[in-house]
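Q: What does the assembly look like in three dimensions?
Context provided by user:
Components: two
Sequences:
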Amino acid sequence: MGDNKKNIVHVDADLRPIIPRFLEIRQDDINRIRTALTEEDYETIIRIGHSIKGAGGGYGFSVVTEMGKAIEMAGKAGDASTVEKVTNNLSDYLATVEIIYEKI
Amino acid sequence: MSILVIDDSEDIRRLISTFLKSAGYEKIHTSGNAVEAFDLLGIEGAKTPEGTEDVDLILLDILLPDMDGIDICRAIRKVKQYEEVPIIMVTAIQESEKLETAFLAGATDYIRKPIDKTELLARVRAAMKLKNKLDLCSRISKELEQVKKELRK
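A: Here is the predicted structure of the complete assembly.
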């Protein structure tokens, strides 16, 4: 059985207790971005994208940081289509990601 | 040793706290904005100016919603009690141009987001070492003053 390497993330074992909350906040972010899109509220989208970008990599989710960056940039460009696409990708990623905890 | 983390992101506060606790730092306080931070430190601008904690190191987000991190740094430095406390700015890459201003405002060092555990702990360790040396110098200076007073009698 092959691994989908894109969806395996290695996370510092010390962070194990706080990962559920991290993922919960990301789901809130996704919901808030979708709401902001319907309202064309790009300020909110930029702020949330910036926040996702800043947090992801620190928790071991560098892919999340990249997606946050893309959302922030698309928000700054007023590019609703890209914001929606990347947000959907983020949602899919979080739904399928497999976390491997290791002592770092 | 007591550390204060000031950042509006719950993710970042929790992440930094967890990394610091994993390295043995037990007293970690967090604030999500300037008012909470000033309350905790007991400095001008606080709603309750008594202050609750004696802090040995501050990790400060350069961009906060209610007050610029650099202005917070400046306000903290105005207080005699916190003149020598190490302040490490926490900044995203796009905020690099603010770093020079942050250092002029009294920042001691900086780390970048996304937070790297190794870098965070190395910079905190270095800042604490410096703080310990400054505290020692301050104690010795006070003792010398006391001795001088005694000798003049």
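Follow-up: The two ends of chain A are 27 Å apart (CA to CA).
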